[in-house]
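User: I'm designing a mutation panel for Metallo-beta-lactamase domain-containing protein and want to avoid disrupting the core. Could you give me a predicted structure to guide residue selection? Please restate the sequence first so the numbering is unambiguous.

Assistant: Good idea. Sequence first, for numbering, then the predicted structure tokens:
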Amino acid sequence: MALALKESFLRLMYQTRVPSRSGRNERNTIRYRLVVSASARDRRPQNVEGNFFVDHTCIDCDTCRWMAPDVFARIDGMSAVTKQPASKDENIKALQALLSCPTNSIRTEKPMKEVAEVNKMFPLPIDENALPGIYHCGYHSEKSFAATSYFIPHPEGNIMVDCPKYIEILACQFDMLGGVRYIFLTHKDDIGEHDKWAQRLKCERIMHVGDIDYRTADVERKLHGDGPWTIGSDFELVYTPGHTEGSVCLYYKPMKVLFTGDHLYKSGETGELDISLIYNQQSVSLQLDSVNKLLDLDFNWIFPGHGRRMSFKDNNEKNAAIEAFLASKEHLHDNSKAGTTV
């Protein structure tokens, strides 16, 4: 969907084709990077009455809808507030979503004094019981199409997986947690403001050479070949080309978590495993072959850059889900190998 702004004189910047990254709406769209007009910042009529609202600059990234699902939902191709927060917990989650919105499209009618305290909550523990020591960074960046980034404290060096928007208060929180030794970049789409983070945190960036371009030419550790590679004793880097030439997943072996970037995710619409075909920069068959490689890894969680997280009760359930996914895409695999565009 396009941002249809009436104030044409404010379209001062440029126009780019950017498909929706939510996993629910795979249609080519045109969005405008521009000086935002007052009307674009008006609340969408699809919002319910109340303090929180989403304006017309929403890019349908899905972030707020999985961070605060009781408050936000998708209506007419963008997010909207469908229920105002009714408890302290819902209010905190709505504010966390507000701060994580890459385009600052979530707003309130009245200033919220709680924002300062919520700012200090990032990075957010994902599941302190099941997955102690894995955090969601928040502050999604428009430069990475709103990709989710993660923080993993570890005795051999803390790791950031992909990069959020650069926010000094978040950098200070990382300092309090022992800093960051490595920034692992899964692929070239989700690098965010990696340069600012690397300079501020004095850390080593890791990325596959297949995805290196002018923005990442100074990455400290470039991966060559098909791997696998390691970061310390607990992390394996798994080469999974298809979405891009240099896509790599981070496998956290003791916690049985696979950080997939944009390689594989749970669809917010079907609840099943999926890939985003329209974003593939390599062949579909190559990506499906890379998905097939995951059958050899023992993990119970998928943490993607785009799309929803997915959990499995054990490795057998994970493999069954992957095999079902591959079977559902077999016709695409065959067509891709035959040279048919899908």
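For picking mutation sites, this is relevant: Confidence is low (pLDDT under 50) at residues 1-35, 338-342. The two ends are 22 Å apart (CA to CA).
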